[in-house]
Write a structure and sequence with these properties.
Layout (H helix, E strand, L loop, with lengths): L12 H17 L2 H25 L6 E2 L2 E2 L2 H26 L1 H8 L3 H5 L5 H31 L5 H32 L3 H18 L9 H12 L4 H9 L6 H25 L7
Antiparallel strand pairs: 1-2
Helix pairs in contact: 1-6, 2-3, 2-6, 3-6, 3-7, 3-8, 3-9, 3-10, 6-7, 6-11, 7-8, 7-9, 7-11, 9-11
């Protein structure tokens, strides 16, 4: 009896993720969504240029209680207010919710699922592409703002805090992206829910005394920020609004937990859910 010829093996999970990542990265980098969000990220760069010009003219760009805020302090405030509290959640919402929802809306999900790869690998591969794409949008902007605002003489002393800021932003992008990827996998119209969570629920919960803030991503991210932000009177003023924060290690634990759990359940949802493409 002749042996049955061996057929081609299905690719491994890691290989499937790599294929989807390679396919998705170029699409994300050159999409209209990325161009629009690049303009948003360019806002802090424009503000930094204005602050540098004003400072060069001999006028303090920012004062708090009559005290001049240095370039490092302004940079720290921009990391807190603009990047962590606005830009990172926006990127997470617009990209994370779209990982599966865009494929459903464009009726291209069938072509991805027709490939000999696991369905969950589709989401993980697109999520990996999201991380690289958003990092390429956000992190260069942060570095440009840093060199525009921080005097050359202070760069050596503030370089480590800059690296910490970049790491915190990376964690924020990863966690928000994973959470909104789960929302995008579960819901038919996830963008609205994502916006409500990021700019409704989180903003309210952080201001309400009690345990509700523990169910937000921002609560744990802000516990890491003061350790990376330069010490300054203005920064201390911002920190005083959020006195009750967990320890950095506690924050890292819950952020990693949220990241892993969200990705796991998002991939499981994609594996099991039957997506109906509207005609």
């Amino acid at each position: 009896m002749s042996a049955k010829p061996a057929g081609p093996k299905d690719p491994s999970y890691v290989s499937s993720v790599a294929r989807i990542f390679d396919l998705s990265l170029g699409q994300m980098l050159w999409s209209r969504r990325t161009i629009f969000l690049a303009l948003i990220v360019g806002g802090p760069v424009l503000l930094a240029i204005v602050a540098r010009v004003v400072d060069a003219s001999g006028v303090a760009p920012l004062r708090v209680n009559g005290v001049r805020v240095g370039g490092a302090g302004i940079f720290g405030m921009m990391i807190w207010v603009l990047f962590l509290r606005f830009i990172v959640p926006v990127l997470g919402v617009f990209y994370g919710t779209a990982l599966i929802a865009d494929e459903v809306e464009d009726k291209t999900l069938t072509y991805l699922f027709a490939r000999p790869i696991q369905r969950g690998a589709v989401l993980i591969g697109k999520y990996a592409a999201y991380l690289v794409c958003t990092a390429l949008v956000v992190l260069p902007s942060v570095v440009i703002v840093y060199f525009l605002l921080v005097p050359f003489s202070e760069i050596g002393a503030s370089f480590v805090p800059l690296v910490m800021d970049l790491g915190i932003l990376g964690i924020g992008l990863a966690v928000y992206g994973a959470l909104f990827a789960l929302i995008g996998a579960l819901l038919k119209r996830p963008l609205l829910v994502g916006l409500v969570f990021a700019f409704g629920w989180e903003q309210v919960a952080l201001l309400v005394p009690g345990y509700l803030r523990q169910f937000t991503v921002a609560y744990y991210l802000q516990a890491l920020v003061p350790h990376a932000m330069p010490a300054d009177g203005a920064i201390s003023l911002l920190e005083s609004v959020f006195r009750e924060v967990p320890s950095p290690w506690t924050s890292l634990f819950w952020l990693v937990f949220a990241l892993v759990a969200s990705l796991y359940f998002a991939a499981r949802t994609v594996e099991r859910r039957e997506y109906v493409l509207e005609q």
